[in-house]
Amino acid sequence: MVRSWSEALWLSYIIGALEISVITGGLTALGGALASIGIPNDSVIRYETALKADKFILIVHGTLQEVAKAKDILMQNSAEEANVHEVTAD
Questions:
Q1: Which of 1, 13, 20, 89 has the greatest CB tally within 10 Å of its CB?
Q2: How many domains does the chain have?
Q3: Domain contains 90
Q4: pLDDT category, 86, cuts 50, 70, 90?
Q5: Residue 72: which domain range?
Q6: Measured between alpha carbons, how far is residue 70 from residues 41, 50, 60, 74, 84 in Å?
Q7: Within a domain: residue 89?
Q8: CA distance 49 to 16
Q9: Is residue 87 part of a domain?
């Protein structure tokens, strides 16, 4: 039984989070967006975990040469990691 307005709000928040989790397979909205552009699910989970740990991600879009150059620049400047995800044709 809900005893106060704050409990009702908290309960509503939990139910909403569970509904979103079911709809997106456990991914956040950002995770769903990353998956929708072809990022593999295991990478999406790693990226979401990094964001929750106050890290950040950078998405680079360009030709293979531009992406390779961006990766090289990031790694030369002590990036923790730099991954390239190729777009696959459906």
A1: 20
A2: 1
A3: no
A4: confident
A5: 5-76
A6: 23, 20, 7, 6, 10
A7: no
A8: 21
A9: no
Q: Is the pTM of this model over 0.90?
A: no
Position 88 in a domain: no
pLDDT in tens, 63-81: 889 999 999 999 999 999 9
Q: Residue 52 has which token pair?
A: 């929750």
At 3-56, the pLDDT tens digits run 554 544 555 555 555 555 444 456 678 888 888 888 888 898 898 888 888 898
> What are the tokens at 50?
């990094």
Looking up tokens 């909403």 gives 16
* Pair 87, 38: CB distance under 8 Å: yes
Q: Which DSSP string do the residues of 16-76 spell out, in sequence order?
A: HHHHHHHHTTT--HHHHHHHHTT--HHHHHHHHHHHHTT-------S-HHHHHHHHHHHHH
pLDDT (0 to 100) of residue 41: 86
- Name the pLDDT band for 2 (thresholds 50, 70, 90): very low
Amino acid at 28: T
